Amino acid sequence: MEAIYDHVGIAVRSIDEALPFYLEVLGGVVEDRYTSEAPGVEVHVAVVRTADNLIELLEPTNKNSPIDRFIKQKGKGVHHMAYRVDDLDKAILDAENKGVRFLEDTLRTNARGRRLIYINPISTDGTLIELCTYPDNLKKNFT
């Protein structure tokens, strides 16, 4: 499996309060904002592009959100690192053949068409890592 760095997800209590740092200090630009109320997701997302990085600011929409639980347990900050793969199904199979465990209930297509799954932090020495792939019409924006 060849994986290329894609983005970092950062848990925040308020996107509107966090954005000035990423826009004014880091010189970022908001590329997208959306909300996902899918069960097990429940998050507002702001996608910010800096010169050479993509950042997802993640704000919980309710108390059932995994981001809300994350903030309560660990505080605000880096939630996950994401790596892009060409073929998500093949990458999952290859990783499983090497003993990697996944959080299977996280396999989904997000509101913008990105397919993703999270690797169980047991397999990564504690870091939550997302593997993702984009549909052809979105690849040009993220490569």
Automatic annotation (TrEMBL):
Assigned EC number: 5.1.99.1
Domain spans labelled VOC: 4-134
Signal peptide range: none
CDD domains: MMCE
Origin superkingdom: Bacteria
UniProt KW Metal-binding keyword: yes
Pfam families: Glyoxalase_4
Presence of keyword Chaperone: no
Keywords: Isomerase, Metal-binding
GO molecular function: methylmalonyl-CoA epimerase activity
NCBIfam families assigned to the protein according to its UniProt record, in alphabetical order: metmalonyl_epim
Family statement: Belongs to the methylmalonyl-CoA epimerase family.
Matches recorded under PANTHER family: METHYLMALONYL-COA EPIMERASE (PTHR43048), METHYLMALONYL-COA EPIMERASE, MITOCHONDRIAL (PTHR43048:SF3)
Protein name stated in the entry: Methylmalonyl-CoA epimerase
Organism: Sporosarcina siberiensis
